[in-house]
Amino acid sequence: MSRGIDLRLYVVLDEATTPPAAFADLAEAAVSGGATAIQLRDKRSGARSLIALAQAVRARLHGRNVPVIVNDRADLTLAAGADGVHLGQDDLPVAFARAILGREAIIGLSVTGEAEVEAVDPALVDHVGLGPIFPTGTKPDAAPALGPERFAAIRRLLALPVVAIGGIGQANAAQAIGAGADGVAVVSAVARAADPAAAARALLAEIDRALRESGRNR
């Protein structure tokens, strides 16, 4: 847990796989299946559209106690009243994002290798998105896959909750948990499923099984 956020099944809604107009429907389906966090990743829409999109998703999930995280943009996170922001290494520095959003907002930070670990400040960052752990076709500019062994080695350097991302589905979610992840972030595994709610449900069951087997009971 990180600032109240359950990282077990972190579903990313990406305009590369889902039209933004369908984000709210997909978010609702994913959460119905057990998704514990929702992130919005839309690099094409303008600021006003992104604010409206985040507000629509939040409204659809009202009362479900599942945080809505905006990718990249701390300013739009604040404007939309979203729960937090997820930052990449080239985005606004974490200290500035924390100053904009305040102490209660959730801030996640992407880490792709050992060289980026030293700059992670646990006083400012709530959790790390580490990856890609496996090869992924969802994000064309993704770094090379770490693989489970290197993922595990980097994870041991981090004193924060870690969510694994990159090429994760039901077949390998347990492998990510076994490598030390506290949860997994998925895009296609839910977005491209014929039944997103059922896909989320199956993923969460696999994640919880792996957490129990690793001694981190759910």
Question: How would you describe this structure to a colleague?
Answer:
The chain is α/β, with parallel strands linked by helices and 218 residues long. It has a single domain, classed as Aldolase class I (TIM Barrel), CATH 3.20.20. It is built from eight helices and eight strands. The chain has helices at residues 23-32, 47-60, 74-80, 94-101, 147-155, 173-178, 188-191, 196-213, and strands spanning 9-14, 37-41, 68-71, 84-87, 106-111, 127-130, 162-165, 183-186. It has an eight-stranded parallel beta barrel, surrounded by six helices. α5 links the parallel β6 and β7. α2 packs across α3 (74-80). The radius of gyration is 16 Å and the shape is globular. The termini are close together.
CATH homologous superfamily heading: Aldolase class I
How much strand content do the residues show? 15-25%
The percentage helix is 25-40%
Instruction: Determine and state the CATH class.
Output: Alpha Beta
* Morphology: globular
Series of H and E elements:
EHEHEHEHEEHEHEHH
Tally the beta strands: 8
Give me the secondary-structure category.
Answer: alpha/beta
CATH fold topology: TIM Barrel
The tally of structural domains comes to 1
Radius of gyration: 16 Å
Annotated CATH architecture: Alpha-Beta Barrel
- How is the biggest beta sheet arranged? 8 strands, parallel, barrel
Tally the helices: what do you get?
8
